[in-house]
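Project standup — Tuesday

K.O.: blocked on the structure for the chain from last sprint. Re-posting the sequence here as requested.
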Amino acid sequence: MRPPVRFVRGRLDILDQRALPDRERILSCRNVDQVVHAIRTLAVRGAPLLGITGAYALSLSRDPEAAAKKLIDSRPTAVNLRVGVLRALGAKDPLREARRIHREEIDRCLSIARHGAPLLRGKRVLTICNTGILATGGIGTAFGVLLRARATVYALETRPLGQGARLTMWEARKRGLPAFLLADGAAAAAIREKGIQAAIAGADRIARNGDTANKIGTLGLAILCREAGIPFYIAAPTSTIDLETPSGSGIPIEERDSRELSRHFPVWNPAFDVTPARHITAFITERGILKPERIRSGK
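H.V.: unblocked you, prediction finished:
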């Protein structure tokens, strides 16, 4: 598969996720404002990949401090963006640091998949949003686990922008992974009628107590799993853990343009929700399977 971001010859090439699955279009960004626009309009997305993209983008600016602020402000919920930008900002060679961050996330994805696969091997699993290479730069977090486990995927469409319908299903087809697309409202029926055995999601930020921000609808999925008595996992690299935020109440939740839902009626359009740690069976990280108390300790 084509890499979702690539720094080459003084520019940052971004695979435009807005055009998928119909077209594989590349945005060639030569300045920070172009990257910020790509981030805000979801041409590039996914917490780990945003960290990679933000770090690379700093190499395009002659005013790194101003560029860092623009980049960090472009998507407030995903902690990786801030971490990646600040790491590049503090490095003697921002581009070299960005490449290091990129390699680290690729390696983390492989480790997450290795640790998580035994939990889901051969099972029927619900997932939400997109957590593959398009979100991480590697084989994926939750998607990487599903891929290595050779699970049968039931992908929620993930309204209003359809990241599950457009991106997860596209990646599953590219990878030869069996996958079925579901309307978001069909999750409960699928658990009952299709014999779903587990659910797995990614994360945009994990607070110190294990509360987890992810795509809107994740909280509802976790509650359904708890009611049905099936495990609900979060797969994420430790770079997504924010030990400076004590609980989910401190995670900023981005609200998107109302026009994504309607041009006629009043709208509330949060991009994310926060799932309390008590609804999460375990966290699958590159360090292994963690319970909330392990996250709290920072180990």
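K.O.: great, moving the ticket to review. The first strand starts at residue 5 and ends at 8. Residues 117-297 form a domain with the Rossmann fold fold (CATH 3.40.50.10470).
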